[in-house]
Design brief:
Elements (H helix, E strand, L loop, with lengths): L15 E3 L2 E3 L6 E3 H4 L10 E2 L5 E2 L4 E4 L3 E2 L6 E2 L4 E2 L3 E2 L8 E5 L3 E5 L4 E4 L1
Antiparallel strand pairs: 1-2, 2-3, 4-5, 6-9, 6-13, 7-8, 10-11, 11-12
Length: 117
């Protein structure tokens, strides 16, 4: 008896291993072994900018519109470049942790930035 799980799509018990993937011969569904082990999927941790480009830790970004800094009279102007961002799972939608010259450490939403070179 195989100790492989049933197919999550059609519940077939005839799944088999193919390198790092598990395959169902009945419905042709494929899934990763890490999904089986409770690992995180890549889709959970994908952060995209306003134009759909994938962001990663250490990227440089450009703010695309003027953003008021909550609790102050400061404004982060559109076109401001930020280097060395860190991606976080913010509770309130802020998913970029960074330092902006002249303002300091703050968090931004990825929907208001674009990836720069």
């Amino acid at each position: 008896m195989s100790d492989l799980p049933s197919c999550p799509q059609c519940n077939s018990m005839y799944t088999y291993e193919d390198r790092d993937m598990l395959v169902c011969p009945e419905c042709a569904h494929e899934w990763s072994k890490t999904d089986l082990m409770g690992g995180t999927t890549d889709e959970e941790n994908v952060f995209k900018d306003a134009h759909g480009n994938i962001l990663q830790d250490g990227d440089s970004i450009t703010v695309i519109k003027d953003l008021k800094v909550k609790g102050t009279s400061l404004v982060v102007k559109g076109g401001t470049k930020v280097k060395g961002i860190r991606l976080i799972d913010g509770d309130d939608g802020h998913d970029i942790d960074c330092k902006i010259k002249g303002i300091g450490a703050m968090q931004l939403k990825s929907e208001y930035v674009k990836k720069s070179k």
